[in-house]
Automatic annotation (TrEMBL):
This is Mastermind-like protein 1. It is found in: Nucleus speckle. It comes from Ameca splendens. The gene is MAML1. Residues 61-70 have a biased composition (Basic residues). Residues 8-67 form the Neurogenic mastermind-like N-terminal domain.
């Protein structure tokens, strides 16, 4: 007799739980669909801002690089300096000054 009473109650509880789980599942699916749609829309709205920020970053990097970059000497100038013909063969004023200063420093050094 006790078993007859417990069985309907158990099945009723299980049925209520199944209905609640199904309602949660439906709610989750509708929320997920809204979230996916909103995510795509938000990404499309943010994309132009992201592109603008990326362009500004690249421009700032280029500006900083050009400020700190010194003109690179050509291979011919390197060869002339290596052979000792930099100041004599008409290098720039800065190169001549630097070479003259180096030469003067060498003559002042008692170990040379």
């Amino acid at each position: 007799m006790m078993a007859d009473f417990v069985t309907p109650r158990h099945s009723a509880v299980m049925e209520r739980l199944r209905r609640r789980i199904e309602l949660f599942r439906q709610h989750h699916n509708t929320c997920e669909n809204r979230y996916v749609g909103a995510t795509q829309e938000r990404l499309e709205l943010e994309r132009p801002n992201t592109i603008n920020l990326h362009q500004r970053l690249m421009q700032n990097k280029a500006k900083r690089a050009s400020k700190h970059r010194q003109p690179q000497p050509s291979i011919d100038q390197d060869a002339q300096r290596a052979s000792g013909g930099g100041a004599e063969s008409g290098g720039t004023a800065a190169e001549q000054s630097r070479n003259t200063t180096r030469a003067a420093d060498c003559h002042l050094d008692p170990l040379v």
